[in-house]
């Protein structure tokens, strides 16, 4: 006759064995579906249809190992731009810190991104356009005065950096965060 404690212990050992096997690559993950939730999917987790792999929640599982009980938020990326520049970035924050922050302090940075022309500017710069002359040639970016207005807003918020007179670049530490925000805005 087994007790509830024995069943609980056996379940815990089985889960640990499965986890070790997955970590060692000896067994397929409990869920390899990227299109529909499964019992192995964390509650409320969104499935990622673009970054396929044997374990859809590998980053989440690793974060849970490191985070305290209140949780954490992590974003990371490895990106090679059309220009050939390569960036790798990871940033994490304890959930308690984010929830306690004064969110109004993020308003300027978010407002700078909340304009279609500014998003287009960032896109064009990430695709390799660096000078105001190259950017001004784009018909959707408006007049030179409008262009400079939007460039100033992005520089002031830290999304762009002036590299030389009339030349702009997205700072390396901002490439993945910009793409992360765009990914988060997808529906």
TrEMBL record:
What the entry lists under SUPFAM superfamilies is as follows:
Winged helix' DNA-binding domain
Per the UniProt entry, the signal peptide is none
Compositional bias of type Low complexity: which residue ranges?
26-45
Q: Which InterPro entries match?
A: ArsR-like_HTH, HTH_ArsR_DNA-bd_dom, WH-like_DNA-bd_sf, WH_DNA-bd_sf
Give the HTH arsR-type domain ranges. 108-187
- Listed GO MF terms: DNA-binding transcription factor activity
The UniProt annotation puts the region (Disordered) at 21-49
Q: What is this protein called?
A: HTH arsR-type domain-containing protein
Q: Which organism is it from?
A: Actinomadura viridis
